[in-house]
Amino acid sequence: MPASCRRYVKRAAEDEANEGELALGQFQDHFQDKVVLITGASMGVGAGLAQTFAAQGAKVAIAARSVDKLESLAKSLPGESLVIAADMSQPDQVRDMVAQTVARFGRIDILVNNAAVGMYAAASDMDMTACEHLIKTNWLGPIHAIQAAVPVMRRQGGGQIINISTVAARLPLPYFTAYASTKYAMTAMSDILRMELRPDNIQVLLVFLGRVRTNFTVNAFKGPGTKALGGKMGGISVERAARAILLAARWKRREIVVPCSNRVFGWLRRLAPPVIDRLALALLKPMMRK
């Protein structure tokens, strides 16, 4: 293995070890009374982030379509919380989500664009109605949320936007066409937004999530002849992902990969794209095609 590759792998391993060092309460003064709006908060990483931010003293507004799950989550949270019914594919509901948060708390310090829908299908036969729903939820929804939240953050003197992407936006994978494309768009938007909002003291954190033990793959749309990747098998815990994101938010990082070891995949593809493409297809085709 080249020396540069060994250094990269070593750094990733060190960062991965550091992900587990965040103790609850370590940054309580930083997040105390901050208002955090989290989309897609009814389950998975969104719910984990709500619990983690609330444990640090933040006031959390949790939004999703499943109000019953949100209300159950809210009962378990310390401190003040707000439940908001919102479908990210509906612009009016997204804008109302932001308005409700401001009406309740008077400000928004952190916007977390976490809500997303998955889809596993070959580009040649994916359902276009489902694909358009993905675009509305994963790409246009966050933009509507940002457009509604940024004026609020400007008036209060700053804020932070956390956009949750995927390692599939760094390492192209077969049968991820629609989902990965929306996350590639989020990646580009985040990088540009960071430059545009810097004069307003609004920081942008981009999170590339790897495999996390949730029902995300089970709930995703599947194309003809395609199946999901093994449900909750493999991956890191929701709690670990949430801690890593909280830590990055505290130190105002530009972007992170969670788990850190997944950064190696992007590096390897840049090193030998044709080889990695063939390996990805050879690995995923037997697992995802019926």
Describe, in plain words, how this protein is organized in 3D.
This protein has helices spanning 3-19, 28-31, 44-55, 67-76, 91-105, 128-156, 177-197, 216-219, 238-250, 263-271, 273-288, and strands spanning 35-39, 59-64, 81-85, 110-113, 119-120, 159-166, 202-209, 221-222, 255-258. With 290 residues, the protein is of the alpha/beta class. The chain has one domain: Rossmann fold, CATH 3.40.50. It has a seven-stranded parallel β-sheet with strand order 3-2-1-4-6-7-9, with helices on both faces. It has a two-stranded parallel sheet with strand order 5-8. Mean pLDDT is 87; it is low at 8-17 and 19-24.
Characteristic terms for this protein:
290 residues; alpha/beta; Rossmann fold; 7-stranded parallel β-sheet; two-stranded parallel sheet; globular
Give a concise summary:
The strands form two sheets. A seven-stranded parallel sheet has the order 3-2-1-4-6-7-9, sandwiched between helices. Strands 5-8 form a two-stranded parallel ribbon. It has helices at residues 3-19, 28-31, 44-55, 67-76, 91-105, 128-156, 177-197, 216-219, 238-250, 263-271, 273-288; strands at 35-39, 59-64, 81-85, 110-113, 119-120, 159-166, 202-209, 221-222, 255-258.
What's the layout of helices and strands?
Layout: H1 3-19, H2 28-31, E1 35-39, H3 44-55, E2 59-64, H4 67-76, E3 81-85, H5 91-105, E4 110-113, E5 119-120, H6 128-156, E6 159-166, H7 177-197, E7 202-209, H8 216-219, E8 221-222, H9 238-250, E9 255-258, H10 263-271, H11 273-288
Parallel strand pairs: 1-2, 1-4, 2-3, 4-6, 5-8, 6-7, 7-9
Helix pairs in contact: 3-9, 5-6, 6-7, 10-11
